[in-house]
Amino acid sequence: MTMKTALIYSISSKNTTAVADIIKDKLKGNIEEVNIDDCSFEELMKYDFLIAGVSTWYDGELPVSWDEFLPGIEEFDFTGKTFAFFGLGNQKAYPENYQDAMGILEKFFSERGANVVGYTSANGYNFEKSLALRNNEFCGLSIDASFSKDSMKTLIEKWIDQIMKVVS
Amino acid sequence: MTNSFHIKYTEKEKLAHWYFLLVTGRLLDNKAPNYLKQALGWSYHAPYAGHDGIQLAIGQIFQRETDHLFPYYRDMLTVLSAGMTPEEIILNGISRDTDVAGGGRHMSNHFAKPEWNIHNVSSATGNHTLHAVGLAKAMKYYGVKGVSISSQGESSVSEGYVYEAINGASREKLPVIFVFQDNGFGISVPKHEQTANRKVANNFSGFKNLKIIHCNGKDVFDSMKAMDEAKKHVLEYDEPVIVQANCIRIGSHSNSDRHELYRDDDELNYVKDHDPLAKYRRMLLRYERFSEEDLKVIEDNASAAVKSAHKSALTAPVPSPDSIYDFLYPPHYTPKKYPDGIHSLMSGEKKKLIEAINETLKAEFRLNEHTFIWGQDVANREKGGIFNVTKGMQQEFGKARVHNAPIAEDYIVGTANGMSRFRKDIRIVVEGAEFADYFWPAMEQFVELTHEYWRTKGQFSPNVIIRLASGGYIGGGLYHSQSTEGVLASFPGIRVVYPSFADDAAGLLRTAMRSEGPTVFLEPKALYNAPQAAAFVPDDFEVPFGKLRVRRVGSDLTVITYGNTTHMSIDAANDVFEQTGKQVEVLDLRSIRPLDIDGILDSVKKTGKVLVVHEATGFMGFGAEIAAEISDKAFQYLDAPVRRLTAENTPVGFNPILEKAILPDSEKILQKMIEILNF
Fold first, then answer.
1. Which end of chain B is more exposed for a tag (fewer CB within 10 A), N or C?
2. Own/partner pairs for B13-19, CB < 8 Å, 24+ apart?
């Protein structure tokens, strides 16, 4: 494939980094890593396909890494670019805002022209509300705190297969 | 315009000013505990770190010319952002005489500046929501385009009175912004133990005429947008707004709390990583609005400002112990034509107690256009109150001045307090409850009323008259017979009056409505239409506070009483004279507090024997206070122990047999009089 692909997240986030590592292994190096804590805003525009990761803490805002980054790219046009999102959350402890941060990110980029892939079924999850729901599907891969390491790995790899099939 | 509050587009001077405030506030917040360690005061400090965005925003949208602000005890940055100086904040923290909130009288971290409409609020968390709503009533009535801002922690929303306040603001469409600063904890109690919704503002989603805005209270720009939107909405749509600001509490609840006992490392790391001040600083640099050097200059300026404030505050005077009785009572009206509250009118038509109250209310409403009355059931067409005391008032003075209130006693009293802050000549009469028995839910607002003047060192007096239909003798049982004066009069700063006759009712009400400060006006409801309480009432009659009236002259025994039992005592005294030839003097106190102790002593010195009579229970009853005063000041004049005749120490039963067995009556009083006379 010729698509220039990036994995974009905050490396200061421990759990997000753990998921990112699985994705990197799966893609065997065919992906560049962008740390939003210190990258330039323009850097995103170098890529055709971006896999963005975010965790939802407590009452559902974006973590500071993304919150500080987005104002810098508000006026960018992402038409022609493809995004896939993965989110980390805790449906038991925070059922009212499960995966909200992923939903906020997806909305942000899709409103600016991005093509979004990698929707997943919400079946089997148990929560009350989520900004990440789109017609009963999550707008990305939803990883819950209750998942075991192995099941998480399987889920991520399956999702990567799903999205790579679409973008290839 | 959204871009007014954006890291890329906000004017540089504004960003710099905000950074100065944020840094100055944080320096003060971090420094506050040191004053305690150095034994300089500030024993209560609730750090605000983590609430920086929303507090900056509240202060920035507040305009002291038109708005009113009710900050809570964690709102240090709010008041700094609203314009208070670091020195004023420190003076409050270390309770100096020059503290603009109230000269060191109120607790530390209760920042206020009443002259700028930054109100001095209670420690009873969230009860100022009612004051903010009351003030907004005034703003709406007087046509002021501004907002009344009430700020509080999310846990205090659990208080019932907060629901009453928001219900009232929603029903009356009042210009209030309720800000809930949500840091997830009420001291150590996590918010899921307060209410089912994690975001408590959503509890109010069914309220009509109410907008709810959620924002990130840790983010300056999002908070500014939210507060700006809230204010514009209030002004444009004339309805209240709730702003729920998602915050974090970086520190413990206060300096007497240890949060490491109940918060895990994950959470503490999260809050540290999400420090709003650090975030704002990073953004200023990342978006190249300022250089490191620029920020260093601002930080140095903030540091210098705090150091200078500290130095100056330490030289400020401390309060004098001699000042404790200053500002306990605001100025009262002093009757000129009737200095002792005695008149000689003996002709014309006698008026009933209910007529005297009704006519005096109307006369004072005609005299002062800034008078208002509300309460439960006070005005609906031809009906004016459960006993018709306010009959005809709404027709004459209009609904804006005379209206019903929800069945929420605390709301009735708290909003009266709030509205009276708007201007000094406002007088609000409330029917505190349909019966005195139902006043208890308003007790926390009652307590506020009693010490606002003292607490603000004379800067604010709530000019509120609480009318309560009191006492028994109507076969009303446990909840239509209670006597509340003993409890209510126990609070310093309150005036309590209790007329027995129509003329005194008129005179006392007139004085109360012309005085500053709160007065409880207790009405013996059994006497509203009773012929024995009817009297000739001069149109301009006035009765001063603290002046008893001798209702029957005597030389052998003094009876001290008030309300219903005045009449029973007079009857019993007449019977005693017929039976024994002894003359009993009957003193009608009229004022419970202030108490006419000189008038009492004059009579005791003459008779040497005392009987105190009241219909309230004896245990902890007001009669105990009178007996103690007499024992203290006139023991040498006594020829017998001071005796009391009161209700039995039980509730008042509904069955007439029970009521009669419990409450005093003329026969019981007669027996007691004879007993004492024979001592």
1. N
2. B15/B284, B15/B289, B15/B290, B16/B290, B16/B294, B16/B298, B18/B56, B18/B60, B18/B220, B18/B280, B19/B280, B19/B281, B19/B284, B19/B290, B19/B295, B19/B298
Measured between CB atoms, does B635 come within 8 Å of chain A? no
What integer is the mean pLDDT of B615-632?
Answer: 97
- Tens-place pLDDT, residues B315-344: 999 999 999 999 999 999 999 999 999 999
Nearest by CB: A71 against B8, B184, B282:
B8
For chain A, helix (H) and strand (E) counts, in that order, are 4, 9
Minimum distance, in Å, between the CA of residue A160 and any CA atom of chain B = 29
Considering only alpha carbons, which residue of chain A is nearest residue B6?
A71
Chain B residues inside the 8 Å CB shell of A57: 270
Which ipTM score applies to this complex? 0.95
Q: Per mean pLDDT, which of B2-11, B364-373, B387-396 is the most reliable? A: B364-373
A to B CB pairs, distance under 8 Å: 36
Q: pLDDT category, B22, cuts 50, 70, 90? A: very high
Mean pLDDT on B433-450? 96
- Spatial CA neighbour of B315 closest among B30, B102, B97: B97
pLDDT of residue B66: 97
Residues 6+ apart with CB under 8 A from A142: A86, A87, A89, A98, A99, A102, A120, A122, A125, A132
Residue B6 sits at the chain A interface (C-beta within 8 Å): yes
Query: What DSSP character marks residue B480?
Result: S
B window 196-215, beta carbon within 8 A of A: 197-199
CA nearest to B244 within chain A: A59
Answer whether residue B1 shows pLDDT above 50. Answer: no
A63 shares contact with chain B (CB less than 8 Å):
yes
Residue in A closest to B266 by C-alpha:
A57
B28-37, B383-392, B534-543, B562-571: least confidently modelled range: B383-392
B198–A68 C-beta distance less than 8 A = no
For residues B283 and B289, give the distance between their C-alpha atoms in angstroms, rounded to a whole number.
Answer: 8
Catalytic residues of B, by residue number, are 480
